Amino acid sequence: MKIAIVHNLPSGGAKRALHDLEKCLRARGHALHLYTFAGADEEYCPLAPYVEQSRTFPEPPAPSVIVGAPLLSGYLLLFRRLRLIYSMRIHYRRMAVAIDRGGYDFVFVHPCRVFKAPLLLPYLRTPSVFFAQERLLLTRLNAGALNAATLILANSSYQAAVLTRIYRVNPAVVHLGVDTDLFHPLPRAMREKTVLSVGMLSPYKGHDFILRAVARMPPASRPSLTVAANAGGDQTRRRLIALAENLKVSLRIATRVDDHELVRLYNGALALCCAQVREPFGLVAIEAMACGTPVIAVREGGLAESVRDGVNGILTERDEEQFSSALKRLQGDRGLWNRCAEGGIESVRRYWNIDAACERFLKTLSDAGIAPGSRSRISSPGIPSADERHGPPVHHRRSINP
């Protein structure tokens, strides 16, 4: 197939998911052309190695606040945002014209870092597939864009239900997968007395919740916390540092972590802690599983679909005491740690890998009539059961030392 890929993504899980899926599509012989904006992050998980052509459109600067003039700043901010919408519409319209002339089988559209649902969709005549991987606020712009898409994909059943409730659309669920060539257990990896939290420095990522949960552990057995953040604000960083000092938790914040360092962090951690607020999917959870690292997660959003309690991790309510107790259990019970570590590896081998995700993607397109030539090796229709996603109980022949 000949596919146009459109994105204006920052660094993060959505960009990595696009990168890995694009890599798989190229390996299957599909022709990929990239359309993007100057503001998109192309240093993180670059797409250029897998596309035959690319075209970059200019992006107007985002509106900014005038310090010391709140009333004037408010009016100017509104004016500049309206001007930004107008400018982006012009660029998206030009992009649509270029794409429609390209003779593509379909356009694979991803969230826009400025408006979430891209303004491109209403202007396209070519069939479009929008992958709604991120939170979408209820706005007229987002509603108009979503309703113009030929097919909407969601990365979890949770995300699909949210989109259906808010926008009255009917997304198809395509679970993501992880690249096991990159994320895998490292030989002779030494597990440290530390837990890991991965995600941008934002209140939505729940790093402060994890800090408070760790602080509830006895000082003698309390692990340190490493936060790996690819982006975020200085205000959140300062707040986390102050909170850690107040709670007497050893905190390290690692920024702009490259892939190899991220794999090393996964392999060196006692556990990955996930406390994101209603995260649509949570790619970091399956990355940790692929590395043989148990996941402790709040039973919320898409995390409840990949993390299976007692099989590849532990699920808790959004309660700091419960989360802290789960950390204590995992730290003190080597048998539980080994079961979750090996269960995570098995879950990824069976279901949460990028090759299986690519097959699910192609099958969904085929079922929707967008890619009639694509046929899948996956036989189970619909959303798989927990046993299909995670596999039967694992029989353990070896021990992984936490």
Outline the secondary-structure elements.
Elements: E1 2-8, H1 13-27, E2 31-37, E3 53-57, H2 70-100, E4 106-112, E5 128-132, H3 140-148, E6 151-154, H4 157-167, E7 172-173, E8 194-198, H5 207-215, E9 224-229, H6 234-247, E10 251-255, H7 259-268, E11 271-274, H8 283-290, E12 295-298, H9 303-306, E13 313-316, H10 320-332, H11 334-350, H12 354-367, H13 386-390
Parallel strand pairs: 1-2, 1-4, 2-3, 4-5, 5-6, 6-7, 8-9, 8-11, 9-10, 11-12, 12-13
Helix pairs in contact: 1-12, 5-6, 5-10, 8-11
Fold and architecture overview:
The structure is a single chain. This protein has two domains: 2-173, Rossmann fold (3-Layer(aba) Sandwich); 194-350, Rossmann fold (3-Layer(aba) Sandwich). With 402 residues, the protein is α/β, with parallel strands linked by helices. Helix 3 links the parallel strand 5 and strand 6. Helix content is 40%, strand content 16%. It contains 13 helices and 13 strands. Helix 1 packs across helix 12 (354-367), helix 5 (207-215) crosses helix 10 (320-332) and helix 8 (283-290) crosses helix 11. Residues 63-72, 373-383 and 392-402 have low confidence and may be disordered. The chain has helices at 13-27, 70-100, 140-148, 157-167, 207-215, 234-247, 259-268, 283-290, 303-306, 320-332, 334-350, 354-367, 386-390, and strands at residues 2-8, 31-37, 53-57, 106-112, 128-132, 151-154, 172-173, 194-198, 224-229, 251-255, 271-274, 295-298, 313-316. The longest helix has 31 residues, at 70-100. The protein has a seven-stranded parallel sheet, sandwiched between helices. The chain has a six-stranded parallel sheet with strand order 10-9-8-11-12-13, sandwiched between helices.
